[in-house]
Write a sequence for this structure.
């Protein structure tokens, strides 16, 4: 992602491609075992991932080893799975092939991309001036809203539904991956300048 003049759309698509690759590998290992998860369980999984990111942001270190970036990637994949589960419902056994799971994943990922393009047009790249920690807080807020909607049996009076909140979580998480990748590349570039032999 370090190429100059790369667009937001291209960066977004690169992150989605990375997440899809991981999703595909996990399908090979586990098949679509997530088909058994109720949407509320996926909301809790998103909550755990987002809380860990916030914890790492505050503490500044990880005792488990994995950093913040992989957790944003997980938020993207669990968010897309959440949308699939909302629309297809949960089951008691795996009922789709890996190819079908990938097709559903791709459809939801394209929705997230289309939404980002519309919002980015209206907000004019405002996300680039935000802190990564703000993405985390917005994601946690979205999760809290989803929990409330789930407690009301999915009904809302004046708000967007659960799927819209899942899409927003996916998009904030993609922005997080983009920003963290850029920060890492800048640090590596600085190290090279300071130590040309490296």
């Amino acid at each position: 992602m370090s190429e100059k003049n790369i667009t937001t759309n291209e960066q977004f698509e690169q992150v989605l491609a990375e997440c899809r690759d991981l999703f595909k590998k996990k399908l090979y290992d586990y098949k679509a075992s997530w088909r058994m998860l109720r949407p509320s369980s996926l909301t809790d999984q998103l909550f755990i991932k987002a809380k860990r990111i916030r914890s790492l942001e505050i503490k500044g270190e990880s005792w488990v080893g994995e950093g913040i970036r992989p957790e944003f990637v997980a938020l993207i994949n669990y968010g897309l799975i959440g949308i699939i589960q909302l629309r297809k419902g949960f089951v008691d056994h795996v009922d789709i092939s890996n190819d079908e799971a990938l097709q559903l994943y791709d459809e939801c990922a394209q929705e997230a991309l289309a939404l980002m393009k519309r919002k980015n047009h209206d907000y004019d790249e405002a996300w680039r001036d935000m802190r990564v920690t703000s993405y985390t807080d917005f994601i946690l807020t979205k999760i809290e809203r989803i929990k409330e909607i789930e407690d009301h049996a999915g009904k809302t009076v004046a708000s967007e539904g659960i799927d819209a909140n899942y899409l927003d979580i996916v998009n904030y998480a993609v922005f997080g991956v983009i920003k963290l990748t850029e920060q890492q590349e800048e640090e590596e570039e600085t190290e090279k300048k300071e130590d040309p032999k490296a």
User: Anything to note?
Assistant: The helical segments are 8-30, 39-59, 68-88, 98-123, 132-151, 162-194. The longest helix spans residues 162-194. The chain has a mean pLDDT of 91.
